[in-house]
Amino acid sequence: MIPTNRRGHLRTALWLAELGIPVLPLREGKLPVGNCRACAGSACGDRPHMKAAGPCQCPAPCHGWAAATTDQAVLTSMGWSRAWQQARAVAYHPGGARLTVVDLDNSEAITWARQTLPATKRVATARGEHWVYRGAMPSANRVRTGVDIKSCMSYARWYGPGSGTITALPDAVRTLAMKEEPASRTVAHPITVPTGAGGGECPHRTPAYLERGVAMAERSIADAQSAIHNTVYRVFLAVLSKHGRCGCLTESHVKRLFTVAHAKGESARHCTTAWTNARAALGL
Asked: What tens digit of pLDDT does each residue of 41-100 get?
């Protein structure tokens, strides 16, 4: 039984879902409800999370933003009832609704937005404002002081419908994300590169063959317009299947792949998870 003071959150979620906006419950601290037992502590290898949009197929909300759904039968199912009992707020996946939220955390950020960005729907938050634009893009944190961008592979707390008329996502916001220093970001975990079974001779003979393969892999990730998680995993799998056993693949090559994945919005953790899963799938 969902307590009366939590039913409002479920009603809000069902209303948003009816509008085509994927939603999920948030517990205290604006955090997603914890993963189900089968996925707790990344026991599932985060595989259900490797998709462009949720929800995963777990019986309860899992994997943060990827749990967001518009399926009212799922939202009211037994598997989600405990989540609504814990709920302190409702969140939504902007990218799943083809929206982008510019999260302005303080008065200085709001002043900057008013001077720099085109007017759009504005929603008052606990500390500042959400400016909501029509159109999706990769999410990016700390694009400038007090400013985050929430869209694909991210969630935003629902504070209400706001005021003003929603307008098209401007290039000024897309440019902000491009300034997030993709080339200088470093991998959060050490990269272990296979050195080849038995130290056998590399069958590829020339460095040009490897360089061409890595460059093609970079382009495949960079050109992906959707299903970024799946694309990154599939590309990592392809590179490792071709070059992972002979020892010609270096840490520099792997960092290149991680860097282009970062530029598409993938976190260091998800890059590392995709790389680990690809190696495991190939028995490396």
From this structure: 666 666 555 444 456 677 888 888 888 999 999 999 988 998 998 899 999 999 989 999
Long-range contacts of 44-47 (CB under 8 A, 24+ apart): 45/273, 45/276, 45/277, 45/280, 46/270, 46/273, 46/277, 47/277
pTM for this entry = 0.63
**Looking up tokens 């995963």, which residue turns up?**
56
Burial of 166 (0-12, 13-18, 19+ CB in 10 A): middle
- What CA–CA distances, in Å, run from 23 to 108, 144, 157? 30, 27, 10
Q: List residues bridging with 147 in a β-sheet.
A: 104, 144
The larger pLDDT score, comparing residue 264 to residue 116, is at 116
Q: Which residue has the tokens 């990218």?
A: 95
